[in-house]
Amino acid sequence: MKIKNRILIGTLTLLLAVGGMSCKKYLDINTSPLTATKVDASLLFGYAITAWDVNKNSGDAWLPVGLFIQNIASGGDFGWEKSNVYDVSVYSIGNTWKVYYSTAGNNLNAAIKDAEGLDPANNNAAAQCKIVLAQLMYEATTLYGDVPFSEAWNPDEFPYPKYDAQKDVFEGIIALLEEAKGQIDPTSPLKISDYDVFYKGNMDKWVKLANSIKFKVLMTMVDKDPSKATAIGEMLSNPESMLSSASDNLLYPYYTTTDNENPKYRLFKENTNDARNPWFFANSNVFDYMGPKNDPRIPQYFDMGPEATTYKAVGTEEEADETTSLLSSSYLYRADAPSVILSYQEILLLQAEAYARGLGVAENLTKAQGLFHDGVKAAMNFYEANPAAITTYLANELPNLTTVADPVKEIHIQQWIDLMDRPLDAFVQWRRSGSDGNEVPKLTLPPGATAGPLIRRFVLSPDETAANPNVPKPAPAYNEKMWFDL
What we know:
This protein is mostly helical. Helix content is about 45%, strand content about 5%.
């Protein structure tokens, strides 16, 4: 991507304005060369994380990815509309790319330089920005494939940055996380606190976050690079170094005050003149794993249809009706629902998978079962499911990994359920859950899709392909696998 000017944000007003942007408009960013060249790192950090989370939880990323990964249902003409869910808007593709590079990514890079350029250097602030940047680049590469990384955000030296191979991007992310951890000094008062909506400057939690992102990257890489099992095993020997309770969750908070509500709540509020969700429904690809076992998360994930007495799902483009369950406006998309970026339950389930597969450790289904149980329990507790129903489910419905025929598949099912409202992460999980045609769940081409096979990525932004001569040629198609994809 050719970046001509650093993006400099200097007011709290702009932080709030991002939350109100249309999902089909490019971000209105001041790139004037006359803009001041020095902005406090905390302001740059605050803007970056706001722009990032609004994009991933609104019409630009959440909606199209949720539809084509088929963990939400459009309801046909009764709901969102019956259309080709593979026809992803160029605005969604372009706006998401801009967040990773022109806005959030570029602001984080500027914040790192500013923090490290102080005397004394604010190394904790630089580390906080690097850890978030690592998560951004993990999302960028798992969504787009090969992307600029080693030459990104350095327009003076690299006006047209090269595209790094996905494996190299992953390696770069791990190196960036290790670099960040090496900078952290929990005793130093220099850090981002007020604008750190995640941990309020608690640097011990930032270390846990860095380790958890690293573990997730390694688990994404290991099937194509089995040598990563060694590092996975080393991390499993010290699980407390990763997210170790729900209090460590990486969450972006939202509130009931105007312009500070959850982006999905605002999507419905601003486009339907109502805070309720009239468009999206329970998809059988998720619900069919939950309904027969009376999963306690069902009332948290879904609202019954207005004429229903029970919960009911439909397929991806099937026609819904008044008895079909909607995605929950009453809980899941309430105004103050936090955005989940990385969770304790996600790490527990990944750890369970590693033990069940023997990744860097001896295969141990008993150990895997304990982590599996704790991960599912943590997921249900996070979504505030009924405690008695949780106890019943764990006692009577949770599979025993030591006796089932395919323990890894059972873990993948629970990972898929947990990620229903996080389609970018569900998309990664689905692709890494099995070889082509053996993923969990086994998806079929949506009705109305104009071509196949199943979608595997976002295509590149038209603005990027027009501006950067180093884009891959030919540019990858939506159905082409990327390096990590089984």
